[in-house]
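Notes from the 1:1 (GR / supervisor)

We went over the backlog. Supervisor wanted to see one worked example end to end before approving the batch request, so GR pasted a single chain during the call. The sequence is below; no edits were made to it. Supervisor asked that the structure be written out right there so they could see what the output format looks like.
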Amino acid sequence: MYALTLTAELNGVTNLRPKDTADSPFWYTFTVQCTSCRETHGNPISVSRFETNELSGSRGEANFVWKCKNCKRESSCSIKTAPKAYEQTEPPKQQPIIEFDCRGLEFTSFSPEGEWLADGLESNTKFEGIDSLTEGEWFDYDEKAGDEVSIKDLKWDIKRA
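Structure output shown during the call:
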């Protein structure tokens, strides 16, 4: 089992999470590497916890199935948990976002493409449509709190859970 973790500086917001529902699934974007031959896939891949693909030989299904072009081995990955919200802490600390089970492959990097949500820390204002996390920061204004809010210094990591 592996976990995608995040460390980030949240100012005025908390509960940062991907918008990931059955009606609006989030596509987690990773760089993938074969654990057999260490070949890295040329393009980023996207995985949804709501989509399943058949494994060859009727061995079940997984959220992501991949056949390495180099060694021809079939590998798979399944997301095991719904995403956990990243809570604002001082100082920022590493927290798991999702957990996944990889067989024959590993994710080497993550790109936060897609829509993210957050809540005002004091005001409970709902922030939707946060889609600039790939740029490494996000700024907005919380009308209820009368203050600027931000998400900065994002550090994504993939580690054993």
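Supervisor's comment: The mean pLDDT is 95.
Batch request approved.
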